[in-house]
């Protein structure tokens, strides 16, 4: 009897092993996906809620892509980029081979969102907080520093960046602090140098199982780039810095299948005055305050599929005397859905109507179609394809054209060539419609790679080409090439 039981147990184990091994063989190539590089993601594409001035850096969305080279990391916690995937093989001498876990192959997991124990920066845990830090050092080349000029001035530059963060690891509620700084210094054309930095604090108080309230504050020092059409129209050929304070209150109220997400954001934009060619600029005429309110509702049909409704209002007030006619009020209503199809396709789409009315009756109101959406396709665990599009209204610093309508779209392909080598390619376009001037269209192409050396070191290289495809009469069409290589040291 004992021998019969032992024989049956052995046969059962062999049968399970025979079923498991083919499945493991099929899963073995899987390693992940990479999200879009360091850009303004089009799925969160600038809307009237993102009230930053045009042409700046991603610190304040809502601006043309400009020629600031889009680096290959996502904006991740300061521990470094969300590192690339690893396979199921040893990571080097003395390292334990990794197994394919449930999380590694979970539904909708991308290269950027998947955890990678061999390459993710570990950070430092003290008490109930995790502390992260990263330092970027590198250099690059820009072949068209002042695209508004007929001649092409090129120069090499050095880049340096620091990211710091502290985040709670509590099971309920949350508190976080972030700080970052980025610098670019040119070898010959020092007037093109810029320094950006930001610092912020955010918190969340949980109420029940799925409801919460949150608040955040962020101080940002950024700039408008020289390829910004508004600067070119004013004849400015150097970066224009500005400061912004952003206060946000938000919450989530969940009622069975229904979730309501209200938020309110108060922002300030303050441009710095500068002396250019002996003349003092009047940049402060473009200073304004913005108050934005938003309510999003989501009704869940089944897990992964829901209906969306969105209402936004925004009030913009210029602070300088004589600029009151530029004040505006914007409202919009959109509806759409979230849809997850088998975990291989995920879509979010909102479509509606937006209208902006100005205090000055002589200014033409802006109105029309509003949309924002993203489609993510996961053809394999090694590749992610992301399509995104948006149509928004943005502020302009042109005195004669307070705002413009911005339509943007793009496709990004991320591929894991090796378990520690991630390739990214991106093509996107942006069309801006100025009521008083005409249309401006830019195309941007980017390719890049990240080589993950270990938890603490990674090498990032990218190339970006920007092309002014069309411009109003009197403005140049041009091309800009930028290349950059950086070493990232993460804690």
Integer-rounded radius of gyration: 25 Å
Task: Give the H and E element order.
Answer: HEEEEEEHEEEEEEEEEEEEEEE
User: Tell me, what's the shape?
Assistant: globular
Largest sheet: 18 strands, antiparallel, barrel
What is the tally of beta strands?
21
Give start-end ranges of low-pLDDT stretches.
1-104
Number of helices: 2
Structurally, the number of domains stands at 1
CATH topology: Porin
Please, could you describe this protein's structure?
The protein is mainly beta and 491 residues long. It has a single domain, classed as Beta Barrel (Porin). Helices cover 6% and strands 54% of the residues. The strands form two sheets. It has an 18-stranded antiparallel β-barrel. Strands 9-10 form a two-stranded antiparallel ribbon. It is globular and about 55 Å long. The N and C termini lie far apart (60 Å).
